[in-house]
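Practice problem: predict the structure.
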Amino acid sequence: MAEDLQLGTCDLECEHNNRDHRTSETGCQHLVIRRGQPFMVTLHFAGRAYQEGVDTLTFTVETGPCPIESSGTKSPFPLSCTLEEATWSSAVESQDGASLSVTISSPPDARIGRYRLTMDASTEHQGSSFSLGEFTLLFNPWCPADSVFLENEDERVEYVLTQHGLIYQGIDSYIYPTPWNFGQFEEGILDICLQLLDTNPKFLLNQDKDCSRRNSPVYVSRVVSAMVNCNDDKGILYGRWVSPYSDGVNPMAWNGSVDILQRWQEYGCQPVRYGQCWVFAAVACTVLRCLGIPTRVVTNFSSAHDTNGNLIIEQYLDENWRLQKGNRELIWNYHCWVESWMTRPDLSGGYNGWQALDPTPQEKSEGVYCCGPTPVKAVKEGDVNLKYDVKFVFAEVNADVAYLVLQSDMSRKKTMSSTFVGKNISTKSVGRDAKEDITHNYKHREGSEEERAVFEKAKPQKKAPPMEEGLKVRIKGSEGMNNGSDFDVFAVINNNTATERHCRLKLGARTVTYNGSLGPECGCKDLLNVNLDPYAEKVVPLRVLYEKYGDCLTQDNMIKVMALLMEHETKEMVLGVRDIVVKNPDIKVRVMGEPMQKRKLQAELSLTNPLPTPLSGCVFTMEGAGLVEGQKVKELDRPLGPGEEAKVKLDFVPRQSGLRKLVVDFESDKLKGVKGHRNVIIAPLPK
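Answer:
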């Protein structure tokens, strides 16, 4: 009778496997692999060596608290001669005395998550069981049979492996990049992302069913969309769009997702205060990239929030022609969500590819504050009855805008406006710090026959035809619209008719948040008699003073300018609306020293106060995946006077080589959310 086979140790070959599976930046202390791709373990037996034909080895993988074979969360499989693609399998790689190297392969539709690996060894009628260790299994965009497979290698690197990026903010006529530290491979982030899945209400309701569905990126991404906000669950972020933020962090002050995720875990899964759309989207991007789903942050400029599903955003003006506060349907200057790449086997008709997911809590979807995954192709073609939430996303990029003016008899009169929604839909380009416009993915050209046909397909009732052009008014900004300065905006009026027109012009400016909520008035002009010759143009300036807007400007630095032109005789009205961005100063970032892995460097950060008043409570915060351990914070010890430059130096030691991004934020009492960044190429340690 053969002696029992006894296992001494098992080496999960973390460093080798993690490198092969492109997860090495998570470290080499834990095995992190991607499904559908083999990995190797080495068994060191005590006593005698493994003998083929004498010993039978059977491996078992289990995930979740209640693993069941029928649910796909438990899979036993024998050691055999060859690997199989569609199921868990193993084969001998090599043998050296009492050491046996075994290759194990997971199916490309395996459930993701933490796994326990065990082995049963039997010889004739005797057997023993051994625990081999734990590993984490992720989605695999490099595996052609995986439902998140992405063919282009540069896109896989950008949308899965890159830990930094740019998020676009502003208005459609002034778009600026905000740097963000996604940090999906930073220490502890993978564990937090898996904890997020285990905190979701579907898991708490039925652990077996939830874990069994984690093979589907459609299911997992929808869970993430719901869990990034805390409206229905113990989610990550608490949303707030108006000050004060004194009991949390101003949304503008975040530099990245790592600090947010770590706080959520540290606070016992209590929501982190506060988030707004780009923060929700960026955190979702971190979680989805961490789990292996290719994801990018997308910004839609002039984004509609349609609450009743009629694809019309109605804005009301009072009897003084001022836009009224309190409209629930708003035009956001911009709105951020994410797109994730996956197949859609739950839909027929070829809706694979980019799927929109929106974790910002706007409207409920199937009773929960989440949105998506919405096939971008379905949005473009107006297939609004498909799941999930196509009609809502369609409205965000396609809804019409109607302005209704209160008349003296208390009736409402609809007026023209050139306002369009769904402009300049933008994301970061692959492999470089530049903007890519992806509007064409969501909609046909504005005003084209295809665009109108899709709108009619999506909307049951016929759209009212546009009014014929006669009078026209538009808003133009000026150079030097800088925070702390006075500047001009202009109403440009055109009479596109052959007759003289006698009009009244009401021109006003109000501060506004990026999601369309109005603040106080900061400039106004009412001209009772404006005469326009045939085919003439007239330019009317409005001076906007810092003393008027300085104290009521929100962190978004936006001002809404409206010009309403009414002809005295016909009572015809036309409206011009434009939001402008008041520009913050730049943060200058210099890196001093030879950029090499594990060698100390110094970053010099500087900013000049542009305001006519001192800044107090001035704080610089710096972080960067692979560059900075946590965050570096430097507070100025005195107020910063008008025109004075603040300059600080912070040391850091890069942990990883390659292209990295330092992300910097500046906060003070009167100047908030000022961002800066610097790309740094870190050389590897010499071998």
